[in-house]
Amino acid sequence: MKKILLFAALFSGAVNAATLSVGNNLELLVVDGKEVKSGRFSHAESVELSEGKHQVVVRFDGEVKRGSKKVIYTTRPYLFDVNMTSQDAEITLPRLTTESQAKAYFARDPLWTLETATGVTTLSAVELIGDGLGAYSDIPALVAEYNKKNGIIIENGNPVDLQKTVVEVDDKTGKVQITGDALTQLKLWYSKASQEEKKTFKIWMAEHDFS
Known about the structure:
Mean pLDDT: 80
Strand order of the largest sheet: 1-5-2-9-10-11
């Protein structure tokens, strides 16, 4: 299958970049909130990324055997945080050749790995689950909704988990404490607001002079 290479300019202006690719029958869908465009008859399989953490969405979408026939098996999208270095990296799965094998593998917690020249690490994956017909027709929107619910924003081309930044939980007492600077807290609450709430907030800001 022909690989499609997307340049770093689509996602960041950084000079130091490495290639993130995916294994056989895997498809890159979204990187840092932006859709990865595929060819008419081929999947997007690689992208140039700057060093640092990136939010990557991938799914299995490939040909497998059902008895003597060949069929296409497609999973839901899976979301990862991938820490890129100056080394090229590849997201991989074990080789899945039959439909029954693929179904069994994804029915349990599938193991995704990130391979580089220096070793293999396990990726922590989140399965994105949509609602209703056409739930996966707009995967960037599905990712945006996930990020909104979880207080994640894409800032300077990298995902930032605002909840981890400003919410601190005491391991002994379970007490929750809001930490972090005021700007980070504002970003967290704004990211969770609905469009109507954001509109109301902007009107309120315009009516008050905070200069």
